[in-house]
Amino acid sequence: MNFQWVVDEDLHRIGKVLVQKCDGLPLAIVVLAGLLSKKRPNEWHEVCASVWRFLKDNSIHISTVFDLSFNELHYELKLCFLYLSVFPEDYEIDVEKLIHLLVAEGFIQEDGEMMMEEDVARHYIEELIDISLVEAVRRERGKVVFCRIHDLLRDVAIKKAKEINFVSLVYNEHHSSTTCRREVVHHLMDNNYLCDRRVNKQMRSFLFFGEQKGMLGSYVKTTNLKLKLLRVLNLRGLLFDCEGYIPFMSLPDVICELIHLRYLGVADTGLRHLPSLISNLQFLQTLDASGNRFEGMTDLRKLTSLRHLMGRFIGELLIGDAVNLQTLRSISSYSWSKIQCKSLKNLRDLEIYDSGYVELTRVRLNLSSFSNLTNLRALTLRVPTFRISSEAVVFHMDVFFPSLESLTFSGTNLDAQGFARLRKLALFRVRLDSLWIEEEAMPSLMHLNLVNRFGPVTKMMIPDRFLALVRGY
């Protein structure tokens, strides 16, 4: 059967004229195409008429195209796009973090059916990508992981955000005080900046993307006490040095007095301890402590609103029922063995990690310990005590994990006597650093396919009989 495209000559003419008016600016053409892609053919004339009203020098400027696209967005989508202006220029935005921030800001409402707020936020980001206002930088498992906004679009977004007092961007320490509810710092920050400026008591969000000069004591000690209405606080990379605290060790108690917090970002701050007063943060949804190791006991049982918890919790972690928890990265095998998994019905992302520090408290894990995690999408096991004893375990993983999209093993053992009937082993797009196969293992293997994601396996010890079977190495 032969198919022929039917070209609407009128639309073709309109499209050609619009492209010519873009004066060779690729970004304007792309954004305009994104706008037209959401329009019915009979609406193209309306877009064309709108463009004509804003022509400058007989050509379309990017600000004109942006205004047309922006005005077409529904209210929540406008908020999501304007929020992208808080990130630095040329910044690759972690979509997971962006989603957590959007939810914490209160911009996202649950769908009411099957979608959580995080799903709605991701859908909005995909919409912005579809109409070319946002660029997808990297995708994994079919989902955008990092995104970026073009410099020119960021400039017009910042201008729009300033017009409606949406956010105040601080580029130097001489920036004047503001009444804006969101403040974002993009410069080198020290205590002089924080102590000298007048604190905006109406501030709801404070995000830091700059560099630190020295340690911040006065900010945490005085400024935070005046920001009682904060919902979002991101201090990633800042080091605390407060009176009464050991540097690089404990989260200052004054942060735990910000009882309205929904998002607390303290990644890479050198923290080693979360005080008991953190129980005050009963509205906290996201605690991002990535890059920090917590070797003592951490009690988060009263944080019943917690959805996303990131950090290296080497010591015992107490989370209680945690019915709202969606992300848990990472927890020791000992702490995991103490958790009632039945309550974790919403858990989507789990990482279990054991280091040499907790060798004496390691607990052997098996698949049955994950049997109730029916919504789990990503599972990472960095646990030497987890063993896969037979191919039957692998074949039945879909029963244990019906929603699983990503499965990562690191340091996992396959029993030497297991997989007696396995004929083909294929490992595609894996991150394989080393591979050891004992002489007696997999006696029936006929095909071995290895496609390592980051080049050749650096250490590989396999029986001689397997050498002729290797494909793709």
TrEMBL record:
Keyword vocabulary terms for this entry: Plant defense, Repeat
Domain called Disease resistance protein winged helix: residue spans: 86-157
GO molecular function: ADP binding
GO biological process terms held by the UniProt record: defense response to other organism
Pfam families per record: LRR_14, WHD_DRP
Repeat in keyword set: yes
InterPro entries: Apaf_helical, Disease_R_plants, LRR_dom_sf, LRR_R13L4/SHOC2-like, P-loop_NTPase, WH-like_DNA-bd_sf, WHD_DRP
Start and end residues of each Disease resistance R13L4/SHOC-2-like LRR domain: 202-408
Protein name: NB-ARC domain-containing protein
